[in-house]
Amino acid sequence: MGVIARYREHLPITERTPLVDLNEGSTPLVESRNLGPALGLKRLLFKYEGLNPTGSFKDRGMVVAVAKAVEEGAKVLVCASTGNTSASAAAYAARMRMRAIVVIPAGQIALNKLSQALLYGAKVVQIKGNFDAALQTVRELADRYPVALVNSVNPYRIEGQKTAAFEIVDALGDAPDYLVLPVGNAGNITAYWKGFREYHELGRCRILPRMVGAQAEGAAPIVLGHVVEDPRTVATAIKIGNPASWEGATSARDESGGLIEAVSDTEILQAQIALASGEGLFAEPASVAPLALLTRLVRDGRIERDSTTVIVLTGSGLKDPDAALANVEPPVELDGDARTLAKILKL
Ligand code: F0G
User: Strand, coil or helix: what is 127?
Assistant: First the structure.
């Protein structure tokens, strides 16, 4: 069952909306076995969004945006992307036999995300500028031509993405004390906050979480309070200098009593290895920025150890393994039999 079928009554679905799905959503909420206890946290869980059909949380919002686009008679989908949105848009376009046009910053998206968009059959357009310029271009295109813009400025994307908050509450029986997630274009933090508030109003959860956002130091416009003209970070998914949902992010932060802070590329790459080798969970660099931030907050005593925290792992590590590979031991060479191998391994 996809998110439209599962959460239909909470979504802007009518009898005319087609039931699009790739069985997105219903991702596991994995209890930390090692990292949480090592930090001294009572309860740490990972919402493993990398297990969505195209490997990121984007599918939740995309399925609703595409269903509504079909309902409204659109034939062409268009988006700007740092990679994951383009993969998701391309997949659902293929599913619905629509045309997808994706505009990406040349040379700045992970190869596996580009491969997805190409294989799903999207028209991939590379521009010389960054994501912010790509978004500007597609917004202008959508203003003037009959194409459906499926970036998170499309409110249906936010509607679909809020279902992840529902799933967390449905699994835990209440909202967590802290929800920690990466912030790029800021649609996701906006969507989670909307989801938690809606469930709270319906009495499905007793508490509302503090929303904690992680940006990368070289791409931290919300932390700095101004646009970053030339964003830089190893976490290419969140390499964004002028987030479209800036206000949604600051509202989520302020209304929830949360915070948005930046972590360095070094902290991100360390967190990626810590998560993979410490829990058996492989997430892409942007997705581990929250773990890097949480580690700092717990050490500084800014998160109570008896709290329940959920980290959103937004995208699969298989999307972008290159950056991580530089920091792990290469495979050992074996030229010989099992005894030679045992010697090498010091068994
Ligand atoms: N994590 C991953 C893996 C992402 O791909 C993105 C955004 C984010 C976090 C940040 O989410 O933008 O809602 O604040 N990726 C977009 C894209 C920009 O084009 O794929 P956000």
Answer: strand
